[in-house]
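Complex record, two chains
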Amino acid sequence: MAFVSSGYNPEKPMENRISDIGPRHASDFFPPVIAKNKGQWLWHEICEPGILMHKAESGDEVYTVRCGGARLMSIGHIREICEIADKFCGGHLRFTTRNNIEFMVTTLDEAKKLKEYLNAQKFDGGSFKFPVGGTGAGITNIVHTQGWVHCHTPATDASGTVKVVLDELFEEFGQMRMPAQVRISMACCLNMCGAVHCSDIAILGYHRKPPVIDHEWLDNLCEIPLAVAACPVGAIRPTKKEIVTEKGETKTVNTIAIKNERCMFCGNCYTMCPSLPLSDQTGDGLVIMAGGKVSNRISNPKFSKVVVAFIPNEPPRWPKLAKTIRQIVEAYAADARKYERVGDWAERIGWERFFEKCGLDFSEHMIDDFRDPAYYTWRQTTNFKF
Amino acid sequence: MAKHATPLLDQLQSGPWPSFVADIKEEAERRHKNVNNVEYQIPVDVCDDLLGILELSYKDGTTHWKHGGIVGVFGYGGGVIGRYCDQPQMFPGVAHFHTIRVAQPAGMYYTTDFLKQLCDLWDMRGSGLTNMHGATGDIVLLGTTTPQLEEFYFELTHKMNNDLGGSGSNLRTPASCLGDSRCEWACYDTQELCYQMTQEYQDELHRPAFPYKFKFKFDGCPNGCVASIARSDMSFIGTWRDDIRIDQEAVAAYVGGEIQPNGGAHSGKDWGAFDIQKEVIDLCPTECMWMEDGKLQINNRECTRCMHCLNVMPRALRIGNDRGLSILVGAKAPILDGAQMGSLLVPFIKVEEPYDEIKELIEGIWEWWMEEGKNRERLGELIKRQGLAKAIAAVGLTPVPQHVMEPRHNPYIFWKEEDVEGGWDRDIADYRKHHQR
């Protein structure tokens, strides 16, 4: 199709240019009941799974219907969300930090009708378009990263792994039978643009093979000193190497050498140098971490800990991943006390008991050996359980 | 008929959770039908080719996206992430597939007019695929070609009065919880502070001048719904320093079972009758609560504001009136030097327009980090390398016990010469007068 100009003039990029204006102010988008009662909210309750009610000093009530969404979303889908908001909510809606969609109305009756409507919408293939839930002591949406859909460093797919885990835990999204909220997060490599390191359960893509070196091109595509400096464990050094090129010439090139046994597979060198790819069908897979949280409630925020060192990539439905997470969730639901997060529960019963109750194997991979903080995770006491 | 067979991805159409595969397929179909006669500026089969290349990844277990190239809009060093696939002959529709980050409104409220306008724009000038939202908070628009970047930006700024977000070694798009727009626990207006700091630091956001990325996040209370303590270099968490407000009648209503605890969050299982002793008083981490003559008593001086009692009894207990925020610094994900949680820098500061005190602290931290930080060293890593005391000194604060969980375990104090009486210059001859060799 023909190129359609926006009005931008490439000859004069500064002509009519608008820049540095930032986002729109939130108040441009508030539904009337929010605009009116901002800063005047008294309390809230969860009327039923997926429906929240906030009460304002004015006596006003706002009912929020929360539904899950795949964070990877088409504009066709967003337009459908808009139609719903136009029909039920006067053209307003919001998204949550965990990729849920929230529709706000002012009576419980409207909220229930909306919930029913949302739960009735399906995609071709049968999946729900707008499953209602994600509130209270249950399992809400899994936040995630790009994965194979759009990233150059992933060790797995993000949208797919999240889909299968949420399929497995689907009924938990629509109910609230957990001891506390369970926050599950997914990052497809340890760059963790999704920052999953403080989640009740974290799914993490991980490489297990050191980079493969593209010697012929490395010195053309990368700054060798930057690649060397990128390695946190000092496994990379500059070297010269005699190679046979793609065209069959023998020549000596400036390149790097890697001490493979030192590599921790972080991929930082690949970020600095595209001639050092790590990804590999059998090398790559998943780590499961557990027991982290960000809330300060009762106990301090804490990091997630590695509880499963490796699960292979099994696209398209990653059965072992889904099964293992189900195991952890069920053990927690059965044994934890009310208000106890996964990490609080593990600390109370002891991590030795956590592995036992969750039916997980312990191995050397779960003993930290990365720098000083490792020492503080070893057991410096005779207080342990058999 | 689909352009590429996707037998593996098709298996993700079943199951109850919303299927991204079904959604992309439907979008692919809509583009082919083009009932609105959109003048598509990038290949019509972009969604088909995305499914095709993703199917290939599902088959061979590796990604097919290359390193980002340097693309962007004039005058900005961020906001666009260049993306090219490594099989352009097989999947020409996604040969160039750059991501655009669009700055989101704080709290992520929208009108449908705004979203529809964005959809129209992205329909014509991009893939029609998005993330609502990216992990940092931006609206992420997945996939367009280089010539469309300026065109998209021109329309975004002119028609929608909206800007791009951050990427690269700059201030990343700040994010906040929904704050007091719909939450009774917000100790300050998170959306307003987030917006004001975003506007104040537009230059830092668009033009990379930092050693590495830098993130602000604004949580209204210690519950931390935007996880600022775990994932922002500078985390602003609402708090208060006077007394929790108590409504004793509502306490009695909770005790009497008239109101469900925790806003009804546990209604999916029978946990038995509410027991204030067991569920609130005994779980208080500072043991600063008790019942006396049927009334709940709190020794507020001992309270650390963990939010548990407020969460359990939102109708009876409310945040104090002397509100402000705490600032924690240095949180980050594991890469490279291990994960870090934010460390307390400022125990309490009032949030008052024009926010000069907060800006001074931000700029003090930046000045120190830009001076001392190495290339690609996050603030948290610099603090680890040089010590928290240096960060405290950099913003001119006085160290207080609140800064640490416990005092140092070793006596290796790096005394400064000016702190030691008489300085360090000594005469060996003087010493030898009293000590033979």
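Note: The two ends of chain A are 71 Å apart (CA to CA).
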